[in-house]
# Entry
Amino acid sequence: MPVALSLLPIYLLGLGSFMLWLFPKQSFQINCKFFAIVLSGGICINYFLLMAIPSLTVSFLVGSIFAALGLTIYFYKRSQFTSFGNFSPYVAGILVFLLLSYPPYILFRPLVDHDARSIWFMHGKMIHHLGGLYDHRDWHNPAHQFSHLDYPKLIPSLAAQIAWLGGVWNDFVPKISIFVLYVSCILAFLAYFKNSFRRFLYLLLSLLAVKKWICNGYMDGYVAWATGASVLALIHYMKDQKYDDLILFISMASIALGLKNEGALAILMAEIFFIIYLKAKWREVLTSFKHYSVASILPLLILPLGFVAWLIKKNEWHLNNDLDIGTRSFGRILMRLKGDGPALFFNSILNDEKTMLITFVVILVLLGLMFLRGIKITWQMLTPFLVAMAYGIGLFCVYMATTWDLQLQLDTSIERTVLILKVLLNLSIVSILCSSNLFDLRKKIKEAL
Amino acid sequence: MKFWSMHNKKLCLSVFIFVLILALAELHIKSKPPCFCGTKFEFKNFFSHEPFSRQLPLTTQKLIAFLNDHAALNFSYGQQFQNNMHLFQRLIEGAYPITYREDAKYLLLLQSEFTPTNCKEVQVIDEVKIASCT
# Structure
């Protein structure tokens, strides 16, 4: 069994490498960003295969062929990837620390928490025992309806595949899927680390913001991380218009979309700001795209296909969300807005999320200072904050539209749904500090000495 | 000396902001207990083939053991049993792939529930009675 499971990283990296033959002909450094792109790309392609192919066995076999091709492509094109970039011992040390700190709690703690056991790994167990996602007889069983069967299936399907590969479903082996997600998110964060204390601070703040939600089997911490990592890649793309930043943005966004519905809301907001950016800077973007072949666009379209496939399947099977979001929601939103809905929502935030509010005030102070000092506020400084605000407004509307008792809904979920907001606000602070020379400590100290 | 004699307002502002961020980080740590407390590692069970999770409530474990022993493929339950979310949800999750079916042979009822005439009580496990139906 351990031998079969040891194939998993090779399989996922191979699948991710399959995209390499579509990449533009430019040299890529083998660093955290490269591994983050390959691993997250592998996760996304694997998700699509699991959604598109009826059987776990066949999807793994097809995936293995693609993975073998991907590894061949990597070795064939290895001259393009020879440089070991900024994979410094400093970054490696932090990577080793992160790989040793949380993972024991992810892997060796049994499934005990509600959503992990009753939703994510319950769905995984169903996919594992049914041998794939196409056999949907149990998805309509009235006894299973408490399990929110409409939720995205990235982790359940990966967990089912891992259990199939390991030959056992228990409380531990399927959790390797969470570990895979953990590694891809950490790599995506470290991709932009570059030995900077402020970037380390972001990593630390993001880790602290999600705390227990990354090792208890819930998806909330990971959806916050994946959203944070995708927005981090997006702001770097806005700065330099590099292809690898764009592909990392799309792959981490696709992971966030496949994890939880909140991820879809946050990524929708990020995409809106991305489109606004493209409209504003279309000349620069077009110039950067001139260096790419048409094939280079394909990975950008392939990566979110798993999410699209699940949307189609979900509609086909009539798996509806219990929040009943749609045109019918407007009536409920208006009713709650007239009532005590906003008061309940903001009370809940004020009582439970004081640190997030302080972060919000700090950002406003920073932006105010920059405005007063006449410092240009750039796209990359503002985007995480705007995405966070748009997500916050979206979240407020979803709570106002809930079919459940609002207070109960807030009590049971607000702590988790604001994680994305926390991570994005932390990212806002760091992007402002990193982008503005006003706060460049190192430069100031050098000048002073 | 040169460093401090600068009276650099910008530098002071930067330091202030960093201290504020560190204070925020500290608040994050103190606001709620981290996940590490109260968890137990189970290294030796990592690859174990267990018919059901040992994390389930004891009654649920006994019910699943009964269904496994009797090679049941599905089961049914009474309304009061379904209303007991703790028992109902844990059984549905833990017993899978043994699933609910309306016409299943085994019917799970709470002690207070009436046993239908076409069913015969075969075993009582804690507050649950199991009936075999024709």
About this structure: The radius of gyration of chain B is 28 Å.
